[in-house]
């Protein structure tokens, strides 16, 4: 009988290198928000891949950055916690960023005594092999013990090889979660993430980064889910932008969010959205804990 393998495979890297897109491709479901805006992922989100003889627990993390306020400090704590409990680490960079950015974090990766796969993402945007060779050489100097794999997460190039290597590297272990489980997050979490994704897509400038979504009601019946969501912003002017002229912007946000939620849950959704001002929520420990920013 083939021994069962299981372990934690954590995805880390700088903002906007494609970590969430990679996570969604590896897991096969849209677990993490993946938009064109940086700093999209705020939490550590698990996605679980099960086969008869293996369980891979992937973990997507916020992009590594120098924190400017309390929320970003806690986002960095999520990323650093991913170094402590990984069986295999996926360090993601891409063909355009400077891999030496945030050397403090990279030095912590250098000291790890676990397998590290350094993934150079977005190689489909390169025009010549020579350029890729230069990038590989630079990455090898930064993480000499890492195995380097060029990939394109968006086009699924190299993702099968990643899964194959993970399967070879994971330790023998029983499953950590039920074999039918897809993620460690509750349904309410994905409701707030889907609404937040629409805010990221439809509003400009600082608005998406000043917003948090709290699900105050989630009542599920056989064919319908009733949801009441509160969108928190930091200033009255932001509240006005979210609502829009005669409520048009908030109505559009509600319609698009409801459609996405119905696809996600496969049920009819009754969604109510409200907007409230909570000044400086990004710097309040109490508020951040309420919104789920607790890395431990």
Descriptive account of the structure:
It is globular and about 55 Å long. Helices cover 35% and strands 23% of the residues. The protein is built from nine helices and nine strands. Strand 4, helix 3 (103-110) and strand 5 form a beta-alpha-beta unit. The protein is α/β, with parallel strands linked by helices. The model is unreliable at 34-42 (pLDDT under 50). The longest helix has 18 residues, at 248-265. The strands form two sheets. It has a six-stranded mixed β-sheet with strand order 2-3-1-4-5-6, sandwiched between helices. The protein has helices at 19-27, 70-84, 103-110, 129-142, 159-169, 187-202, 236-243, 248-265, 285-290, and strands at 5-13, 45-51, 54-60, 88-94, 116-121, 147-150, 212-220, 224-233, 268-277.
Topology order in helix (H) and strand (E) letters: EHEEHEHEHEHHEEHHEH
* Helical content class: 25-40%
Biggest β-sheet, characterized? 6 strands, mixed
Q: What gyration radius follows from the Cα positions, in whole Å?
A: 20 Å
- Which residues form runs of ≥5 with pLDDT under 50? 34-42
The fraction of residues in strands falls at 15-25%
Per DSSP E runs of 2 or more residues, the count of β-strands stands at: 9
Distance between the termini: 37 Å
Concise account of the structure shown:
The chain is an alpha/beta fold and 296 residues long. It is built from 9 helices and 9 strands.
